[in-house]
Specification:
Order of helices and strands: HHHEEEEEEEHHEE
Organism: Rhizobium mesosinicum
Number of domains: 1
Number of helices: 5
Strand content: 15-25%
Strand order of the largest sheet: 2-3-4
Structural class: alpha+beta
Shape: flat
Largest sheet: 3 strands, antiparallel
Protein name: DUF1902 domain-containing protein
Helix content: 40-55%
């Protein structure tokens, strides 16, 4: 991305941050406030990463610094994979048959008994528009206008009925 594109994206993220903060005043549940707070945190993380990228761009332009150029390339690549998770993040290690949710402890998904071996990983189920409430259109706008993915899903086991 060019400096102008980064500045435009920075401005968009800052604008969305203000929209989400204003929208938070209408929240009537703790869950909704938590989602808004997580989105604000994610937007701020994106803004901070863009600040680093823009500072590196200035350093490369001003000093023709090869190290800064390599660092800029790395930061840009990392930002290209940037996403915001509002609720649960699921990591699965298929080699060890373990998983963890939200960076917690690793849990073994493999069980065995006289009937055989079973592997039961949780799956991510997206929140509905009703659960997202007034955030739903904002999340769509963020993804459409910035290209940054926003994930709002909860980790559930397939055997879990939820009741």
């Amino acid at each position: 991305m060019t400096t102008d594109q980064n500045l435009m994206l920075y401005t968009q993220l800052a604008g969305f941050r203000l929209v989400v903060l204003a929208n938070r005043f209408g929240c009537d549940t703790d869950f909704s406030r938590k989602l808004h707070d997580r989105l604000v945190d994610g937007l701020e993380a994106g803004i901070d990463r863009l600040r680093v990228i823009m500072a590196l761009e200035r350093s490369v332009i001003a000093a023709d610094d090869e190290f800064a150029e390599l660092q800029l390339e790395g930061e840009t690549e990392i930002f290209g994979r940037f996403t915001i998770n509002l609720l649960d993040e699921l990591e699965i290690d298929f080699d060890t048959h373990e998983y963890r949710i939200n960076g917690g402890n690793w849990v073994i998904a493999l069980t065995a008994d006289y009937t055989g071996v079973d592997i039961d990983y949780p799956e991510l189920i997206s929140l509905t528009e009703d659960e997202l409430g007034s955030l739903a259109p904002i999340l769509e706008d963020i993804a459409r206008q910035t290209g940054i993915g926003v994930h709002a899903a909860r980790a559930v086991h397939t055997w879990w009925s939820g009741s």
